[in-house]
Hints:
By secondary structure, the chain is α/β, with parallel strands linked by helices. Among the domains are: 1-44, no CATH class; 306-410, no CATH class. It has twelve helices and 15 strands. Strands 1-2-3-4-5-6-7-8-9-10-12-11-14 form a 13-stranded mixed β-sheet, with helices on one face. Strand 9, helix 10 and strand 10 (298-309) form a beta-alpha-beta unit. Helix 9 runs parallel beside helix 10 (282-292).
Amino acid sequence: MTMKLESLSNEVLLDLFELLDVVNLLRAFSGLNTRFNSLLFGDFQSYRVDLRSMSKEDFYIFYSTYLPSILNRIIYLRLSDDEDTPCQCSHFQSTGFTLNRFTHLRSLIFNSFSTDVNINQEFFTGLRHLHNLKRLKFVDCRLYHLHLEDFRDVIDQIWNLPKLSRLYWHISFKCSRRFSLPKYTSRSLRNLTIVNYNYDSYDFACLLEKTPYLRKFSMLSDDYGDQDIRISRKFLPSSHTSSIRELTLFSIRSQALMTSLFQFLPHVTHLKIEIFSIDLDGHQWKKMIVNYLPQLKDFQFKIDLDLCRSIDDSTNEDKIDQYLSTYLTPFWIEHHQWFVRCHWYQSNGVLGICVYSLPYVFSYFPRFDQDFNFHTKSTCSPDMNHPYNSVRDIGYEPWMFHNEALSHIQ
Length: 410
């Protein structure tokens, strides 16, 4: 095996190293001979360390045997504290390898940090030294033992990182689902995602002021409040507050919030939005797009709502036809070539609908119960095929595979 591998060029071997996780890579090739050691600890400059699901035994072998030799060549680090790797971050702290020592990191992910009291704001203080960091993600971190105020300095450190271009923020704190405004202005951030964030008019305006070069903003909010982001004279869209071109909004339930965001971000060209319980038709969408989003080119949406009271199949279909007719105007079909599909069903005397743009771009495809008298129609011609290849989670029953209404989905 060694002889066959040795026949490969250094370039091919380095490409091969890219495909292997760090523990297996070092176990397999470290110490085989001088050439492999030279490649591993001299030429190979892009170690990617993903500690998810790493056993405790492998964890300590990695930290004690390999980490000191590759520390300055790790460009990707993912720390995990989920059910498969409980207290991993505490073990990380106990090794003495603090974040500030990973000076060549380009990508850092904190995965499912929980209520381990050993994980506090001090754990993250090394972020200020990661001057090469370009991507930072906090994925489903539940720091319920910390207050948001305890994390303000960490947020300031993040906004002061000179090369950080992408930030994914999904952290829950004790008694708070807000986001602390940074003290510094980031001139490097281009892509920002914030999950479960309650908005305030002043906060959102200031957030944009602190990220003047932001190009893509994504938000997931389950706020039911009918709050408004006031468009005061002080915070009217400007070159500093309207650089955003791509806007993604999930779980939107407030029309006032949605409309205010559109007014605030008039240069958006790509919009992806998931809406619940807001009654919008094609005419209302056209009005908002023309008035607030005149540069919009790519429009992807999904709406779930109770349209009206269910009468009977014939009356319900007439209601659906009336609703879909608002998406059959020249604005939709000729000017933009935007097509939609509408599923409808009856439940508890209500006519419910799920209407979405084509192709379908959301990760979850809704499950429809056969008992709800499910039907579907589209504004596009039957010979047009639109992919559903973004779906990662689908609820299904055997009847769906034999239902004519779903025969277009493959």
